Automatic annotation (TrEMBL):
The lineage of its organism: Bacteria, Pseudomonadati, Bacteroidota, Chitinophagia, Chitinophagales. Transmembrane segments: none annotated. This is FAD-binding oxidoreductase. GO terms for cellular component: cytoplasm. It comes from Rhizosphaericola mali. PANTHER family: PUTATIBE OXIDOREDUCTASE, SARCOSINE DEHYDROGENASE-RELATED. Pfam families: DAO. Residues 31-382 form the FAD dependent oxidoreductase domain. Gene3D superfamilies: D-Amino Acid Oxidase, subunit A, domain 2, FAD/NAD(P)-binding domain.
Length: 405
């Protein structure tokens, strides 16, 4: 399936990682990672650092699936607000999930710094706007529960929001613990870093079509009939991981994004914050290192790639209108637009770990708007499990996590 269409900005901004290396013979490795996007690259990084032999496989050119369509906003806030999540899962689970997301933002920055990967990582503030006056009750509840559990948050009244961020809205929650990055540069940079040190093997245009658990591991087969023997498999293929799962665990969504022509820095909004809103589906916005504005949203249920793509022109108009409603005095002229498909879950949480009673196939499924921060968590959790270390986050994000009836 085409995971995105249109002109994705990251492929224009970066030189494509032109690496062509299909598997053409029998192969043996300790860990086989399926998927070379930001999730697969973070998992590979953590395992390589731990001295584990890794091979990464992708049916496409490296990191050209969902990663190039990502707007790469790193926020500890999860798509389901904490005050609502506690009604779906056990409160302790929800709170641990939020704190894990918070920690992962700085962990990503440290990973990129340590590997000397320039992915335009930048710490910024995050502003969550009340779309309507009635949404102030939601903000108040969310503010109270974040305060209760020592999560960074401040409440902006209407006048303070106008003064600090030049936005006319009933109110907002704000924190200074968010970040943004270039997901494609991060993914390809991490893979190149370990490839140059001969710490992993990387295979492109290699589609896995069969797999079976064997004694002490897995045996995979490519569409060309080559076999891969490994002790463990990590599925880092986003919603395309569905073929490896016994049943469907996610809902597919179509999403749309635009990027503007560059403007003078003085024309951008205060603090260059990540800005999003309470209404669903929510509208969001960020800036880039070269002073462009990236906006997105207008999500809807995914039906098929053709119907998704046919809506692009209409979505461009709606997103531009929403931007001008938020910042009427900032010039926004669309230069590129794209649409993509992503997955979400009912509780807003990812799935990390093994399927019950299948202990040698790991899943790193960072579904929802927090895919990258969830991917960082997945990489650390899987590394810890393979090293025999206890990680309480494994229970928080497992397929068997506790949900309220």
């Amino acid at each position: 399936m085409d995971l995105h269409s249109g002109l994705a900005f990251w492929l224009v901004k970066n030189k494509m990682y032109d690496y062509f290396h299909p598997l053409d013979k029998k192969h043996k490795t300790e860990i086989a990672i399926i998927g070379s996007g930001i999730t697969g690259s973070l998992v590979a990084h953590e395992l390589c650092k731990a001295g584990i032999k890794v091979s990464v496989f992708d049916k496409r050119t490296i990191s050209t699936g969902s990663t190039v369509a990502s707007t790469a906003q790193l926020q500890y806030e999860i798509d389901v607000p904490l005050c609502k999540m506690v009604d779906i899962v056990e409160e302790s689970v929800a709170v641990k999930a939020y704190h894990a997301s918070l920690a992962s933002i700085n962990d990503i920055g440290k990973v990129l710094k340590d590997a000397k990967v320039d992915a335009d990582y930048k710490n910024v503030s995050s502003v969550w706007l009340a779309s309507y006056k009635k949404d102030l009750k939601l903000l108040e509840k969310e503010y109270a529960i974040r305060e209760k559990y020592s999560l960074p948050v401040s409440y902006l009244e209407e006048k303070d929001l106008k003064k600090q961020h030049h936005i006319d809205a009933p109110g907002a929650l704000k924190n200074n613990e968010a970040a943004q990055m270039d997901a494609y540069a991060a993914a390809t940079g991490l893979l190149q870093h370990h490839l140059a040190k001969s710490e992993l093997e990387l295979f492109t245009h290699t589609r896995i079509v069969k797999w079976q658990e064997v004694k002490n591991g897995y045996e995979l087969q490519t569409e060309n009939g080559h076999t891969i023997q490994c002790k463990y498999v990590v599925i880092a293929a986003g919603f395309e991981a569905g073929q490896f799962l016994p049943k469907e665990v996610m809902q597919l969504q179509s999403t749309y994004a635009l990027i503007s022509k560059p403007v003078h820095e003085k024309e951008l909004w205060p603090e260059r914050s990540l800005i999003w809103e309470t209404k669903e589906p929510y509208f969001y916005m960020r800036t880039t290192a070269d002073n462009r504005m990236m906006i997105g949203g207008e999500d809807e249920e995914f039906k098929d790639p053709i119907k998704r793509d046919d809506l692009l022109r209409e979505k461009i108009r709606k997103l531009e209108k929403q931007f001008h409603k938020t910042y009427p005095d900032i010039p926004f002229e669309t230069e590129m637009a794209w649409c993509g498909t992503f997955s979400s879950t009912k509780d807003g949480l990812p799935y990390i770990g093994t399927w019950p009673r299948k202990k040698r196939m790991f899943f790193a499924l960072g579904y929802g708007g927090n895919g990258i921060t969830f991917s960082m968590i997945a990489a650390q959790v899987i590394r810890n499990i393979l090293q025999g270390k206890k990680d309480e986050r494994a229970d928080v994000f497992s397929f068997e996590r506790k949900r309220k009836k």
